[in-house]
Amino acid sequence: MSALDPDQIVTMTEILVILVGIGITWAVYHGSENAELPGDATVPDPHESDDAKPDTRGRTFG
């Protein structure tokens, strides 16, 4: 037999699910103020030439 009755198990599960949801939400939005948003990117100087070979390390497609 369990030391907890079914109502206590349901209550604990509800609390844990809420805490996990808060944790996931925090993990998704943590540090998002440093993200580069559309319109925030810097415009390159038109007098400078582009890179001859862009750095593509770490990309998985292509």
Give the SSE map.
Layout: H1 6-29
- Proportion of residues in β-strands: under 5%
- The best one-word shape is elongated
Please outline the major beta sheet. Answer: none
Range of helix content: 25-40%
Low-confidence residue ranges: none
- Overall residue-averaged pLDDT value: 82
- What is the total tally of β strands? 0
Question: How large, in whole angstroms, is the Cα Rg?
Answer: 24 Å
Number of helices: 1
Structural class: mainly alpha
The end-to-end span amounts to 57 Å
Order of helices and strands: H
Structure in words:
The protein is mainly α and 62 residues long. The protein has one helix and no strands. The chain is elongated, with a radius of gyration of 24 Å. The relative contact order is 0.06. The model has no long low-confidence stretch (mean pLDDT 82).
Concise summary:
With 62 residues, this protein is mostly helical.
Key words describing this protein structure:
mainly alpha; 0% strand; single chain; 62 residues; elongated; 1 helix
